[in-house]
Structures are given as structure tokens and as C-alpha cells.
Amino acid sequence: MSEQWLQQIKWNSDGLVPAIAQDHLTGKVLMVAWMNQEALALTVQENRAIYWSRSRQKLWRKGEESGHVQQLHDIRLDCDDDVILLSVEQLGGIACHTGREHCFFKTLKEGEWVAVEPVLKDPNTIYDK
Q1: Is 122 annotated among the ligand-binding residues?
Q2: I need a surface site. Which of 17, 22, 69, 128 has the fewest CB within 10 A?
Q3: How many Cα atoms within 13 Å fall on the side-chain side of residue 109?
């Protein structure tokens, strides 16, 4: 496959593009991460979500430590060519490193962010700490 499709993407000044992971059945937004060209190409090649970790400055295969792999079902590019939408199956039902189903578990209530989604699994049992 030609890599011309990668050239159509408007990468930011750091060579990254935001990627939204969405549950392929429910449409629920699971998380947002970043991808560089290599991560995106590998995501398509391996049929699983692979991101660029800005904090660790390396490729991050979602689930490589936790086992919570995101199997790719579909990939889309937005109208401005600067955001990726991944339709995924979240294996294990946990996408967030806090042990929750998704990363958007806080809601604004009376000027404060309040966690409103349950922890499904203690993160200390997911990751070696």
C-alpha cells in the first residue's frame, strides 16, 4: 500500500495528530491520544491502536502493559485532515489507566470536577508499580 494517505494528514509542528478512540458498538468516546506517522502506519498494519506517548517519547501499543488492547474496526480522518477517529473494540472493557471504562469520567458540578464513573479495576493491579 502506498503511504500517500499519510501525507494528506496535517501533522502539528511536533509531527503529531490527535486521535480519538471510540467504541465501535456504542459510539462512546474512550480516550484521546496522539499519533505520529509511524504510530498511525503501524495501527493500520497491525490492526490495533498504537499511539505516540508524549511523556515517554516513544511508541505506545495500547494494552502492552495492561492487556487492554484496542482492536481497530475503522479509521477516519476529519474534514480538516487534522484529527483521526479510531473505531475500536476495547478488549477487557477498560480504556483508562485509572481502571475506568473510558478517560472522560469527570463532570463539572458547581465549579468543581467530580469523578462520576466507577473504577472497574484497581490500577495498582493492572500495572506494576
Answers
A1: no
A2: 128
A3: 6
**Is 118 inside a domain boundary?**
no
Instruction: State phi, psi for 73 to the nearest 5 degrees.
Output: -110, -35
The pLDDT of residue 1: 57
Give the pLDDT confidence score for residue 3 in this predicted structure: 79
Is position 14 annotated in a ligand binding site? no
**Is 80 annotated as ligand-binding?**
yes
- 1-24: per-residue pLDDT in tens? 567 999 999 999 999 999 999 999
Q: Is residue 128 part of an annotated ligand binding site?
A: no
pLDDT score, position 18: 98
